[in-house]
Amino acid sequence: MNSQKLSPRFLMLTGLIIVAAIVRLLPHPPNFAPIAAMALFGGAYFNKKVFAFAIPLAALFLTDLFLGFHNTMWAVYLSFIVIVGLGMVMLQKKSALRVVLASVSASVLFFIVTNFAFWATDTLYPTTAAGLAACFTAAIPFFHNTLIGDLFFTGVMFGVFELAKAKFPELVRVKV
């Protein structure tokens, strides 16, 4: 990418991630947010790995400045980074099935990592196998919104970009 001129593809990819990040600031049901979609999208479409990680992470961080931080934010960011990598690997070849599988995988990964981190660092549950099971069990009602939100926002982001590529060939040719 020429540093003096940003490509239309780079601007479109970045713009979609920024819009998704702004959506996080709007009222929404618990866990119905475009977090995994932003990570998968960045991993799937930015050809330069630095952008695949940096742009979605920056968008997540900037919105977290408004939303606030908690003790297990490190687990959210760890999950996010792994989901970017998941997008890079699972979505090298894009198809509707692969996008759905990546989205479901991202939801499950986020659920496991963040709830394990909560169990390991908070005093609400004992640090036993029974405590871990109780923590995961208590989180199940929130997983529904996570899964539906991830599928919805991933579908929107990937769908919008694929439609834009069909209409604007310059989005296909330029690699970023």
Written account of the structure:
There is one protein chain. This protein is an all-alpha fold and 176 residues long. It has one domain (8-169): Arp2/3 complex 21 kDa subunit ARPC3 (Orthogonal Bundle), CATH 1.10.1760. 76% of the residues lie in helices and 0% in strands. It is built from 7 helices and no strands. The chain has helices at 8-23, 35-45, 49-67, 73-90, 96-121, 129-167, 170-173.
List the helices and strands and how they pair.
Blueprint: H1 8-23, H2 35-45, H3 49-67, H4 73-90, H5 96-121, H6 129-167, H7 170-173
Helix pairs in contact: 1-2, 1-3, 2-3, 2-4, 2-6, 3-4, 4-5, 5-6
Give a short account of the largest sheet. none
- Give a count of the beta strands, DSSP E runs of length 2 or more: 0
CATH C-level class is Mainly Alpha
Number of domains: 1
In sequence order, what are the helices and strands, one letter per element?
A: HHHHHHH
